[in-house]
Amino acid sequence: MTRTKEFDEEIVLQKAMKLFWEQGYEKTSINDLVEHMGIHRRSLYDTFGDKHKLYLMTVDRYGKRINSALSASMQRSTSRQAVQFIFDMAVEGLGEESPPGCMFVNMAVELAPRDLEAEAKACESFSSAEQHLAGIIRQGQQNGEFTSVQSAEELAESLHNALLGLRVLSRTSTSKEKLYRIAKLSMEILDK
Questions:
Q1: Does residue 2 form part of some domain?
Q2: pLDDT tens-place string over residues 78-117
Q3: Helical packing angle, 103-110 and 152-169, nearest 10°
Q4: Which domain holds residue 43?
């Protein structure tokens, strides 16, 4: 007879995501996960597999949050406002309950050099973000908001690089004033 689960998978997966996001993969032990998620070790293995599988599941969950936030950028009135929204998100984060920084950046730095699955997920995320930015920039070029001297793809690469840097700096004690100055200067490449 199979036992019924005594926990909500979505809630405990959210807790695991937050812990991995805060501490990283290597620093987070199975004991940390069990304690933080509030489930038994056996339940963790039976439901999520091993630590690596759980980590990749949390990264996928994080990716859905990022995609949802990026979709919200498209609700802005102008292309400039859409890009500003994305930079604001890099500085402010994804909400009060979210750790600073970016789980994809953390994964790229910590695991991608030696973990093909982690590298593939990081590269896919970065490529998707650049494509999203390029789409916004292309629209801004078409309506005359942004320069057309460089291609939308080249501008998106540069802006994405700045966003990655902001995500790293946001994990430090760097002031938000400085982060916003960097964001403002980075966005000036869009000016005509």
A1: no
A2: 999 999 999 999 999 887 778 999 999 999 999 999 999 9
A3: 80
A4: 9-190
